């Protein structure tokens, strides 16, 4: 009798499912035992039934085998994770380098450099983008100029208002009191003017014995005025 191929899906009949579980469990435990004996392998098998009952087999200690498994997987997972991270970082770096190179080439094209290998369509695309950029730049510039003009107008209105307020304050202030003029004191000199006219001063010097003619011994005659 030829056995039919078993379909890999859940058995819906509970009785058939329980019978199949018991048969295959026993076969699995038998195969685990044979593997540990024939190949000197460390085997640990843990099975829970649908009702939660535990079935286990171990060539040594289940706990030691589980700890060995945890250590092995932890080391391998760590090394694999580190290697995967390094490879991912390298891939990201290469990708970023390519993107940076492409951006640098595009920047040079926008500046009008390295256009020898550009096609007509690419040049037209660059021209359109530059025109859009120039339009946005001019729009922003116009907006800033309008804002500056509005600020200057507001400042002008504020200054005019302050000027008007100052004029009103000056009008409402009382006039300042008049200070009496200081008397002018004139000092007159009562002394008569002395007009010194030219005077004749006659000086005579006589040399000689007394009794002689003084006209002969007259030495000098000075007249001053």
UniProtKB/TrEMBL annotation:
The keyword Zinc does not apply. Keywords: Coiled coil, DNA-binding, Nucleus, Transcription, Transcription regulation. One of its GO terms (biological process) is regulation of developmental process. InterPro entries: MADS-box/MEF2_TF, MEF2-like_N, TF_Kbox, TF_MADSbox, TF_MADSbox_sf. Residues 1-61 form the MADS-box domain. The keyword Electron transport does not apply. GO terms for cellular component: nucleus. It is found in: Nucleus. Pfam families: K-box, SRF-TF. It comes from the Eukaryota. Residues 79-113, 142-169 form a coiled coil. One of its GO terms (molecular function) is DNA-binding transcription factor activity. Residues 86-176 form the K-box domain. This is MADS-box domain-containing protein. It comes from Panicum hallii var. hallii.
């Amino acid at each position: 009798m030829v056995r039919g191929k078993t379909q890999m899906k859940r058995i819906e009949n509970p009785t058939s499912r329980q019978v199949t579980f018991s048969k295959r469990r026993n076969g699995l435990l038998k195969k685990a035992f044979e593997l540990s004996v024939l190949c000197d392998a460390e085997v640990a098998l843990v099975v829970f039934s649908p009702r939660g009952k535990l079935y286990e087999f171990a060539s040594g200690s289940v706990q030691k085998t589980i700890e060995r498994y945890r250590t092995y997987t932890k080391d391998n997972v760590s090394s694999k994770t580190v290697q995967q991270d390094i490879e991912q970082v390298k891939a990201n770096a290469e990708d970023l380098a390519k993107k940076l190179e492409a951006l640098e080439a595009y920047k040079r094209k926008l500046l009008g450099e390295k256009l020898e290998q550009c096609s007509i369509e690419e040049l037209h695309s660059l021209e359109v983008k530059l025109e859009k950029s120039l339009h946005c730049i001019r729009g922003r510039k116009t907006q800033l100029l309008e804002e500056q003009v509005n600020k200057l107008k507001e400042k002008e209105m504020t200054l005019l208002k302050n000027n008007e307020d100052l004029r009103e304050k000056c009008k409402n202030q009382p006039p300042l009191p008049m200070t009496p003029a200081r008397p002018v004191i004139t000092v007159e000199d009562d002394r008569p003017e002395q007009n010194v006219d030219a005077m004749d001063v006659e000086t005579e010097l006589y040399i000689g014995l007394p009794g002689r003619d003084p006209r002969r011994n007259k030495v000098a005659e000075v007249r001053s005025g």
